[in-house]
Specification:
The chain is of the alpha/beta class and 466 residues long. Helices cover 50% and strands 8% of the residues. Helix 10 packs antiparallel against helix 12. The protein is globular and about 70 Å long.
């Protein structure tokens, strides 16, 4: 029998800050700035509001461990802050993308809340974020469905295995030993939400609210592991009845133990440039490039033609869009929002704008190549192998002028990475949208650059309080 579970437990429990290369810790610092900014930007949308309400109703307002609820005054019990901040981080679909989903909505929100509440150091925080990602990503890659699997019909489990991005850093910060961590992985696997397709089919914004629930559950189970309240759920990644069988029987050998401890998958994390689905990043980059280069406006455009067409990202209806999530997954909607809604942020997805006639008319001018479809399984395979689907766009103006561009990587891809000016710009936009003071904005940016020097992470987290 394999010993995948034991290997993961040995790796994460022994991991020290000194084991992490500077390029990894620098990326984690940038991620801390980026995720907080997009969470602040999304805090006014309904899912983020609901998550804050649910957090207060679920955990109350007082506890021994208290953490900042980003963009709000005062503090909330640690588990409630995790619920609220994790959902806010995903609400605009703007945080990150790995091969398997959006782990930073949990990695950052969980690790920030815990290190603040427990007054742990910046080195502890960075180690939990990076190490937690490695555990999450290797498990998620291990149980990915095969290309033949009909995920459109049966669902893709982003909201399922996402729970490990909460439990993994939490177990590290609680100081679980290898035996406790083994039980934690078992309990986390047994707490995994079922894989489903209904959220996508019905365009439900519960897609974002799942982060509150899995953030709370993963952290809670980690605490149970540390208190020795779990038993007899060992080695869940091994054996015929383990996690692969629970997740529909897929087991991709070679992911969990591939160069574990020497090859860090964290380096391949993609930062999103725009508040939209991953496969819409390059299309918006294409349009932004052409607008910046040639200076045309929305009213000048006769047609936008794009190739390839990304499967399940071509939705358009004159009836509008059912939800924020529905719009975030539509190339026509997102290109129209870029042209008509100004600076990216919550104004792209307010409820009254999901059926705005002006925006829908602009979206109707977006034509997607009917003869060149990009299968998402193929696209993800390219991403895993270090590449990315190339996108081409042609804009035709009403006066007959045509402009074209082709881009191989979106901004934020490891081959086209964010620098500090990129993450600072996005953070400032989100923080200003939340009315955070300029003093706190600049202090948070400065502290993010030296997280590894902080003795108490409360100093950083409290910058995000109103």
């Amino acid at each position: 029998m394999t010993e995948y579970t034991k290997g993961l437990c040995d790796f994460i429990t022994k991991l020290k800050f000194e084991d992490l290369a500077p390029d990894l810790t620098d990326k984690a610092k940038k991620l801390t700035l980026h995720v907080a900014g997009v969470a602040l930007a999304g805090r006014t949308l309904p899912t983020a509001v609901s998550a804050r309400s649910a957090a207060r109703a679920t955990v109350g307002t007082q506890a021994d461990l208290m953490s900042t609820m980003w963009g709000e005054p005062g503090k909330l019990p640690m588990h409630g802050a995790i619920m609220a901040n994790a959902t806010a981080a995903d609400t605009l679909d703007w945080e990150d993308c790995s091969y398997t989903g959006h782990p930073s909505a949990h990695l950052v929100s969980v690790s920030m809340a815990m290190t603040e509440a427990m007054h742990r150091s910046g080195k502890d925080y960075l180690t939990a974020v990076i190490g937690g990602f490695e555990v999450y990503q290797r498990i998620a890659c291990y149980i990915q469905p095969t290309p033949e699997f009909d995920s459109r019909k049966y669902g893709w489990g982003l909201g399922s295995w996402q729970i490990f991005a909460s439990a993994a850093p939490a177990g590290k910060l609680y100081g679980c030993d290898a035996d406790q961590y083994n039980l934690l992985l078992g309990a986390t696997g047994c707490s995994t939400p079922v894989v489903n397709a209904i959220l996508a089919l019905q365009g439900s914004d519960f897609y974002h609210l799942q982060y509150a629930i899995t953030g709370l559950t993963g952290t809670m189970v980690a605490g149970m592991a540390k208190r020795n309240e779990l038993d007899n759920i060992y080695n869940i990644m091994d054996g015929e009845s383990g996690y692969p069988m629970m997740m529909r029987g897929f087991a991709n050998e070679g992911w969990i133990d591939r160069n574990l401890g020497t090859e860090y998958l964290f380096g391949q994390l993609l930062f999103k440039h725009w508040p939209a689905n991953m496969w819409i990043q390059t299309p918006i980059d294409c349009l932004d490039t052409l607008v910046t280069r040639h200076g045309f406006k929305a009213e000048d455009i006769e047609e936008i033609f794009m190739t390839p067409t990304y499967d399940e990202r071509d939705k358009f209806s004159w009836d509008g869009y059912a939800s924020c999530r529905d719009a975030q997954f539509s190339v026509p909607y997102c290109l129209a929002a870029y042209l008509l809604r100004g600076e990216p942020g919550p104004n792209w997805y307010t409820a009254e704008r999901l059926a705005d006639p002006e925006l829908l008319e602009m979206a109707s001018r977006v034509k997607l190549d009917p003869d060149n479809h990009m299968n998402l399984q193929v696209a993800f395979k390219m991403f895993r192998e270090g590449s990315f689907p190339t996108t081409s766009m042609r804009v035709t103006l009403k006066d007959g002028q045509q402009f074209e561009v082709t881009l191989p990587f979106p901004k934020g891809h490891p081959n086209n990475p964010f620098d500090w000016s990129d993450v600072e710009r996005i953070f400032r936009a989100g923080a200003r949208a939340a009315n955070l003071s300029e003093e706190k904005i600049e202090r948070y940016i400065a502290l993010c650059k030296k997280i590894d020097e902080l003795e108490d992470m409360a100093e950083l987290a409290e910058c995000l309080s109103m």
